[in-house]
Amino acid sequence: MENNNAPTHAAEPHQKIDPRNFDDILAVVASIKEQVGEETACAELGIICGSGLGPIGDAVEEATILPYGKIPGFPATHVVGHKGNMIFGKLGGKKVVCLQGRFHPYEHNMDLALCTLPVRVMHQLGIKIMIVSNAAGGINTVLRHGDLMLIKDHIFLPALAGFSPLVGCNDPRFGARFVSVHDAYDKQLRQLAIEVGRKSNMTLYEGVYVMSGGPQYESPAEVSLFKTVGADALGMSTCHEVTVARQCGIKVLGFSLITNIANLDCDASVEVSHEEVLDIAEQAGQRASLFVSDIIKELNI
Ligand SMILES: O=P(O)(O)O[C@H]1O[C@H](CO)[C@@H](O)[C@H]1O
Ligand SMILES: Nc1nc2[nH]cnc2c(=O)[nH]1
Questions:
Q1: Which of 30, 128, 163, 301 has the fewest CB atoms inside 10 Å of its own CB, making it the most exposed?
Q2: What is the CATH number of the domain that holds 194?
Q3: How far does residue 18's CA lie from ligand 2's centre (Å)?
């Protein structure tokens, strides 16, 4: 009987990879294993670092670093604050694979399947839980610069307009055709994060993250719209990764680092800049990284 889980060849670094093709994903995984070794490549937990949140990746112990340029099918990361490394090692005593740099749909012509290729690859490397982080603008007025918000739900705006990574033919080996995104941000993991936050006296908010397509920041009227529909923080990432993770059964914990306050007043001249985002992320990055390590220590995988 044919074994669909055993590709006969590993992909070459510059080989064309179709992110919608399951066998191509297995070839990418085979290439990674060939480069870092089978034992190193196996991980129980995946982490995606948001803008300026690379320190989470720097904290990985016994690290083996594979630059994205050596991974077949991985495009380059163009956004400042996203280094472009896949890091294998240990964090909080668990075997992790950490993506220091993510793919934003606005960088890749809204090719969401391409932008979620790393999630499918991490699934094949064995991860059961994924921690996603992002830099976000605060909409809820309780949020301040540098606050951490646990994501309890999301509004995946591009997907509501047809830009979902799951659009197109679905190979059942990826998971269900129609994916449930109820409880997408795992309730038990959120509870654990809240307990860890409490022990370390960290103020942790819980709220709804909205993903816009970007790359432009939002107008005050758009911020008002998002506020009206119940969003607490906004950004241009994460929801596509979480959707694909849920399709393949990975549990998700997500948090937003509030790097700026979204402006609702069209008469106020408040400019958001990526420099501000990176600046605040840098200031809070070490704290976020410690928090993630503390959560990981407590995980029961
Ligand atoms: O979501 P991350 O990757 O943290 O990046 C956020 O920061 C960038 C804008 O400053 C956008 O890419 C937005 O999504
Ligand atoms: N869309 C969006 N993304 C961000 N990333 C960090 N801050 C923001 C913001 O205000 N809006």
A1: 301
A2: 3.40.50.1580
A3: 30
